[in-house]
Write a structure and sequence with these properties.
The longest helix is centred in the first third of the chain and has 22 residues. It contains 17 helices and 2 strands. The protein folds into 2 domains: 119 residues, Serine Threonine Protein Phosphatase 5, Tetratricopeptide repeat, CATH 1.25.40; 136 residues, Serine Threonine Protein Phosphatase 5, Tetratricopeptide repeat. Helices cover 70% and strands 2% of the residues. The two termini are 49 Å apart. By secondary structure, it is an all-alpha fold.
Length: 320
């Protein structure tokens, strides 16, 4: 699969230059010696020595790419992965990492191309199919996303992420019963799955079943040790409690979420609103002050701050 032109340039780090230095051969001679042996596991060498060094150089470049990726240097990582693929175009792992870097850089189409090639080279690995499907879904291509989910399930029927992807597709399409059925299959195979549990809770809420929504989120919180639930779970748990008028309990969940989130204006706003509805106006003022310290332009926070200045009780609901 052709690589983006920007990544094909040969500089002092290029594969050919590295191999030329290793072998101490002119590049034109080295080019005549190139040969890649294709095996399912990726690049390997023939008995001829230059191919072995070729593999070493590709692995070294891929390693540099991984290090750059871990350091958050996506531009450097993309360059190294592209160079490694120039030498060894059949390494699905390198293609996969390259795809993820491109995806973070916003190069969605090429990321999908690289992930598609990784899927092909892997022999149709179900997890790679799911990731490819997630990319298609994010790009709005529901048909391609569904195809990847179905192919992954055909290969591994108990693969929770594949069922979750199917659920996401139906959820976005507004087919809530179908989405719920897929999410339940995902939870059957992976019960502790916060994103899926949150999605299930949202569907119950949207279907007018707030008590069932809260029950799902209660279970999501309880499956973790105290202080360990993910922030997103705590936020949704607090919102569900607020919707049912259990404001004191909502404050506890949202306070824990705010403490763990660091500086998230939306979470502090949720906490401020819960404290207001619980009757703790001083606590609400403190929380809304934190909202505006984080984001002075937070519109709902400004509205709540103004309301809290009023001497009369604040209305139970504010328009956001």
């Amino acid at each position: 699969m052709p690589l983006p032109e920007a990544h094909r340039r040969l500089d002092r780090h290029s594969a050919t230059a590295q191999l030329a230095r290793i072998l101490r051969l002119p590049r034109i001679v080295l080019a005549a010696l190139f040969g890649i042996c294709l095996l399912p596991s990726g690049c390997c060498s023939l008995s001829w020595r230059p191919d072995a060094n070729e593999v070493v150089a590709a692995r070294e470049l891929a390693g540099q790419g991984l290090e750059a990726q871990q350091d958050g240097n996506d531009a450097e990582a993309a360059e190294r992965f592209a160079q490694a693929i120039e030498i060894c175009p059949v390494d699905e792992r390198c293609r996969r990492h390259y795809a993820e870097v491109l995806w973070r850089q916003g190069v969605g189409v090429e990321a999908i191309n690289q992930m598609s090639e990784a899927v092909r080279l892997s022999g149709g690995d179900p997890l790679l199919r799911v990731r490819l499907g997630e990319m298609h879904l994010a790009m709005g291509d529901h048909q391609s996303a569904l195809r990847q989910a179905d192919l992954a399930i055909a290969r591994a029927g108990d693969l929770s992420p594949a069922w979750a992807l199917r659920g996401d597709l139906f959820h976005r399409s507004g087919e809530l019963p179908e989405a719920l059925a897929c999410y339940h299959r995902a939870l059957r195979y992976e019960p502790q799955n916060p994103p899926v549990q949150i999605a299930v809770a949202r569907i119950h809420r949207d279907m007018g079943r707030p008590e069932r929504s809260l029950a799902v989120l209660d279970a999501a919180v309880d499956q973790f040790s105290p202080g360990a639930p993910p922030v997103e779970v705590l936020v949704h748990h607090g919102r569900a409690l607020k919707e049912l008028g259990r404001f004191d309990q909502a404050v506890e969940s949202l306070k824990a979420a705010a403490e763990r989130s660091g500086r998230d204006a939306e979470i502090f706003y949720e906490l401020a609103d819960a404290r207001r509805q619980a009757g703790d106006l001083s606590g609400a003022k403190l929380a809304v002050r934190q909202v505006l310290e984080i984001n002075p332009h937070h519109a709902a926070g400004r509205q709540l701050e103004i309301a809290l200045r009023q001497p009369q009780p604040v209305a139970a609901t504010l328009t956001r």
